[in-house]
Amino acid sequence: MSYTRNSRWTALGVLSATGLMTILDGSIVTVAMPAIQRDLGFSSAGLSWIVNAYLIPFGGLLLLAGRLGDLVGRRTMFLAGNAIFTAASLLAAASTGPGLLIAARFLQGVGSALASAVVLGILVTLFTDPRERGRAIAIFSFTGAAGASIGQVLGGVLTDALSWPWIFLVNVPIGVATVALALPALPADRGIGLAAGADVAGAVLVTAGLMLGIYTVVEVEEYGWLSVHTLALGAVSLALLAGFVVRQATARAPLMPLRVLRSRNVAGANLAQMLSLSGMFAFQVLVALYMQRVLGYGALDTGLAMLPAAVLIGSVSLFVSARLSARFGARAVLVAGLALLVGAMALLTRIPVDAVYVTHLLPVMLLLAGGGLVLPALATLGMSGAGESDAGLASGLFGTTQQVGMAIGVAVLSTLAASRTDELLAAGAGEAAALTGGYRLAFAVSAGLLVAAFAVALAVLRRPAPAAPLPAPA
Fold first, then answer.
1. What pLDDT, on the 0 to 100 scale, is given for residue 422?
2. Ramachandran angles phi, psi of 199, nearest 5°
3. What is the pLDDT of residue 88?
4. Which Gene3D superfamilies does the record associate with it (predicted)?
C-alpha cells in the first residue's frame, strides 16, 4: 500500500490516540483512589495494586510484544492491544470488588503493552524523512504530555461530579474509535514470520524476569530494601534476566538479537531514558503528594497547579523540539532539556513547609518545559538505529526501559522519602516538616539521576546519521 503525506499523518493521529489513552489511564486513576477504596473496600496496603496491577504487565510484556510485532505484524499487535485495553476498561468500570478491579487493571496493562510496544516501530517506518520523523515524534510526545495533564484534571472532575467508574469508561469511546480508524489507516504489514524469531525460552525468561523485578521494586515500600522478600525475589529476577542474555547470545533465532545494543545511540538513549524518567515520573507523584499532604491542596487543585508544566512540556515538544533537533541535533537538544530539569529538581530540594505557589512552585513548573525537549530527543535517538525488520524490537525495548525507569523511580524515591520522614518524626519534627524533609531528599536523588542521564548523553550519544541501520548480524 502506497502512503501519501496525508495518509501518513492520519496514521500518526491514530497512533497518538493510543498514546493519549495509555498516559491518560496512568494519571487519571491516582486522584480517584480514595473514592475507589471507599466504595470497593480496598485495604490501605491493597490500594497500591490499583496502580501496580497495571504497571507490572505493562513493563514486563513490552519487549516480547515489540518483537512479536516484528514477527506477526505490527498492525495486528496494535489492533489486538487496543481491543484488549478497551474491553478491560469496561470491565474495570463494572467492578464490584477489589479482585475484579485488579484483574481488569492487569488486562489493561497487557493491552497497553501490546499496543504501545509497536507504536514507535510503526511511526519510524511511515516517516523515513528525518525532518518529518522528528515532527511526527514531537507530535506523539505532545499527546503524552496532554494525556498527563488531562488525566490529572479530568480525574478530579469525573470523580467529584459523577463517580470513579467514569475514569475507566472515558477510555471506551477513545479505544473503539482508535480500532475503527486504525483498520484503514495503518499499513497492513505481514511481519517476517514466527520462524524468524520465535524464541519461546527467551520470551519466558525476559517476561518473567521483568515482571518479577518490577513486582519486587513496587513492594519495597512494604517490605524494605534488605528484607528476605526483596533480596530473594530480586536475586531470582536478576538470574532470570541473566539467563535471558545468555540465551540471546546462543539462540539460533533470539527474541532480542544482542546486536541491537551495538548501536551506541540505541543503548545510550535507553540508559539515559531509564535514568531521566526515574526522576521525572517520581517528581510527578511526589510533588502531587507534597501539595496535598503538606500544603492541603485538593485533588482538582493539585491537577490545576501542575497544569502549567504539562502545557509547557506539550507545547515545547510540539512546536519547538523538532525544529531545534533539525538545526542542532537530537543530542544537543537532549542535553539542554536535561539541564533545565536538573535546575527544576534543584529548586525542589529547597521547598519550605509553607510554600507559596507563585514563588516556590511555579518556577519549577516553568523549568519543567525541559521535558518537552528531553522526551522527543530520546525517542529520536532510541529509534535512530532501527531498520525495517527491527523497528518493533527497538520500539519495545524503548518502551520497556521507559516503564522500568518509572517503576524504579517511584519505588526508590517514595521509599527514601518515607524513611526520611520517619527519621524526622522520631527526632521530634512536626508532621508537615517531616514530610517536607522526606520529599526534599527524594528530589535531591531525582536531581542526581538526571545528572547521570546528562553524563550518559554527553559521553555515549552521537548525532544520528539519516536512516542509520542497526549493525548487521555477525
1. 84
2. -90, 85
3. 93
4. MFS general substrate transporter like domains (1.20.1250.20), Multidrug resistance protein D (1.20.1720.10)
